[in-house]
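User: Predict Protein-S-isoprenylcysteine O-methyltransferase's structure from this.
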Amino acid sequence: MTPPNPPPKNHERLEAPVLERMLKGILDLRRFTIIPGLIEAIAIAMKILAPSEYNFASGTCAQHMSLNPLALIACLISVLGMIIRLWCYRTLGKFFTFQLALLPKHKLVTSGPYAYVRHPGYTGGILAFSGATLANATRGSWAYECGLVYSVWGAAWVLLLVVWFGVSVERSMREDEVLRAAFREEWEAWSRKVRWRLVPWVY
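Assistant:
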C-alpha cells in the first residue's frame, strides 16, 4: 500500500505525535509482512522445482510448510482490507495523503466508504496488516514452522503491531478534531449520520 499522492507540503501538514514519528521511523509494516511471505514463496518454489540435494528447504524447518485453511481466511481478510483501502484512495482522490494534512480547497468527503465509517482507510489498513500477520503466523507457514512465531522476533512483531493499531485509533480521533474545526456544521451533520469511526455498530 504505497501513497496514492505526493506528500503534502510542510506548511499543509499537521505535526504528528512523537510516538507516531518514532513508529514510522523504525517500522515499515509493508516490509515486515511481505518478507516472510516472499521467503515462503521461494521455499515452496524450490520444493517443487529444485532437486532435493540442491534445495535449501529440504531437511530444514521449511519442509514442513503446508496450506492451512486459517491462512486462506487470513489472506481473504487481508485482501478485503486492501480493497477497502483502494476504495478510499479512489473516493478521496487528491485529498488522500499518508500524512495528516489540510490541503488547499480541502473538501469533507462523505460518500463511498465514508458513508459507513468516518475513517475507513484505517479500517482497511488494520484488516490488511492483521490478515497478513495471521497468514504468516498460522501452522504450516514458513514463520511458524521455522520457530519465528514463538521467538523474541515474533513477540516484538506483535508488540509493534499492537502499538501501530493504537496509533491508528488515536490518529483517527485527531483527524476527527481537525475536520470538526475545519468544517464545523458540515462535520457535525456528517458525524450524526455516520456515528462510527472505524467499525460499523462497534466503534
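The chain has one domain: 27-193.
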